[in-house]
Specification:
The structure is a homodimer. By secondary structure, chain A is α+β, with helices and mostly antiparallel strands. The first copy, chain A, has 18 helices and 16 strands. In chain A, a hairpin with a 5-residue loop joins strand 15 and strand 16. The two termini of chain A are about 50 Å apart. Chains A and B meet through helix 1, strand 1, strand 2, strand 3 and strand 4 of A and helix 1, strand 1, strand 2, strand 3 and strand 4 of B.
Amino acid sequence: MGSSTTPPSGFRDFLPEACAARAKVIETISGVYRSFGFQPIDTSAVEDLPVLLGKGGGENEKLIFKILKRGEKLERTEPGSELADLGLRFDLTLPLARFYSRYCGQLPNPFKAYHIGPVWRAERAQKGRYREFYQCDADIIGSESMLCEVEVISALDAAFRAFKIEPIIWLSDRSLLFSLLDQAGVPADKRGEACLLLDKLDKVDRQTLLGELETAVGAQCAKWLQSHILGGKVDRDRLDAAAPEAMGRLNQIMDILKNSPVQGRLELRPSLVRGFDYYTGPVFEFRHPRLSGAIGGGGRYDRLTEQFSGKGTPACGASIGFERLMLILEESGSVAKADELRACVSVFSPELLGHSIKTAAQLRAAGWNVDLYTGTGKLKAQFKYADTRRAKLAIIIGPEEAAAGKIKVKDLSTGQETLTTTENLEKPGS
Amino acid sequence: MGSSTTPPSGFRDFLPEACAARAKVIETISGVYRSFGFQPIDTSAVEDLPVLLGKGGGENEKLIFKILKRGEKLERTEPGSELADLGLRFDLTLPLARFYSRYCGQLPNPFKAYHIGPVWRAERAQKGRYREFYQCDADIIGSESMLCEVEVISALDAAFRAFKIEPIIWLSDRSLLFSLLDQAGVPADKRGEACLLLDKLDKVDRQTLLGELETAVGAQCAKWLQSHILGGKVDRDRLDAAAPEAMGRLNQIMDILKNSPVQGRLELRPSLVRGFDYYTGPVFEFRHPRLSGAIGGGGRYDRLTEQFSGKGTPACGASIGFERLMLILEESGSVAKADELRACVSVFSPELLGHSIKTAAQLRAAGWNVDLYTGTGKLKAQFKYADTRRAKLAIIIGPEEAAAGKIKVKDLSTGQETLTTTENLEKPGS
């Protein structure tokens, strides 16, 4: 038996149409990010393992695809000690923190960066969740101003709107939820668990999880949290009193965004948690109006560079869930089409090949996407090929056409045939 | 001490300018490939290890970054057996063979594919040689016609010409060199070694290596090879007699390309070897007229799908050495510039922020790339920032401008200041 032709579990291949669609979506997002003054960066796919593991390690370690040591280094590794020295990046934020710590002297301050590329996570693959997927990050590093949040939120929102998606934007702050948990009387050691449950509760069917919340923090606390955090109407005064600093930040963001295209789609949502530990202030999430799950999200992370430079740097950034976005675009049939193939030039016979080559070259030079048939089939097979390629035109140069210095052009949608010259055909608008 | 901020040895980060330049070059190459009717594909960065190792394994095994097994799978691994189950792809040709074997039923026949992406090789890093680098492949699968070679060579050549590079193209055939070695009396078991030496001899200073060739095949053989293979003028008749089939293929390719833009830059070069074992017919290499080393190359590989489907498929493809191309473009100063930042909008005071935000939003909506200052510095710092960003214009809205419904626009190259409105500024041609 031969090797398997399927990629490893959780990994994917992309056929031409999907590949072209992904490239177009990336192009659009890049263009929007650039229009907001973000600059592109790229980092290595592979990082030193200690960089990926950070101080704590623990939580991320399971996510990491680790790369085996090589050669002598592997041979010298003692049993029981780490067999890997490198790993694949699992997000684009940690690499950005390393990048910024390395280059900050050469970068504008603040630095507005965007980074679009694949990341890898050793999670169990399931429908819609892959082990290799793209992220599209936009970050501003070096400023404490809430204008960073405003610009990042606006840029992601503009990117979604470029695909006719008007997301709902949930906004909160890490310390807001912590303050509310304190008010509710949740003991400090139950904070993490309660956060996770509240975050889930806000997103899925509540009944099953409410029991879990009661078990975790007690019935009274759970009731308080349910009415004050998960309740329909947010009580601004209570929130202002509970966490004045956090609410100060959030009010600033909401004030500035009041007169922007985001208006009417921004919601204060105290239960919003976001997964990563590194957030230190406002967090936000982009939700599709008709789907569960986030299509983007981010927040402020003022301490991520500590791992590298010993000191924190104010920073705020967000990421578009590229694979979810593609899914939405595919399901709504609004995936960008690949560049059209204008013509397939067929080859009548080896003797007349020169004519076909000349015509293809001339049309390509005029900016057309043109395929020249490279197979060994007869004309019938060549027409079938042109159909498969979804070419607009098929071009045939048989003995009569060659003798008359003409080409025969067949419109593959109408079937209409025209006798013309390459010069006439390549004219704009033909 | 903090984590290191440098990427692992042989891996690189890209600052905004370099990142933008690379994206532009990739865009250009993609455009040229598409104009020749090639369709984009993508495959996973990670492959099952047996796929990468193939039948032989040996030669490639050292190149592969292997990914450590995870969780229980690692725990169950017995001492002495393979610790890895996955690996990073080391080229784009093997993944293409897997891809084609999996999807050929859904693909046009022949299938013209292009694939641009990173590959990883666990080689010792050195100047200009990286462990993570891009390849830009164009392949035609499913046809024995030498027109495939013609299209692939023409497409790569057109891509180089898009950067004003007119490469010399060396052409040969695997079996041509083998036949000549037979004629010279090189014993079969010395073939591989002789091939490698001849290939090197044709590319570097000969004196040191000639001795090695003598040691390998004997003085008489070495002399014969030197005069018949490495000699200045190629003796076509001798080649035709030595390897009629191979020369039949090569003559066909050269005939067709005689009247193409490649004309005058195509050279028959019997000593050309190309590294990979999988080539089965014509091979070719693109050489920069003023530099040593190839900037691209490829050939026919009719048996690569055997590993997957059990049967071979005629195929021909080539790859642009993207990193070398970037090096050439950088050295000649012809690297594409990043998208220009048209304006930096400064923020005069928190009270006037709304005016700045409105102006930025309006210009962005008009298609401009516009940065809004997100830092906390005073106007002086904001001008410095606009300079660092190489913006064309700086826009200031102070109390007087705001009161008058105007904006102040400073041309950062001339220093000239104008009082205008956003509406006037965004007009095309302003």
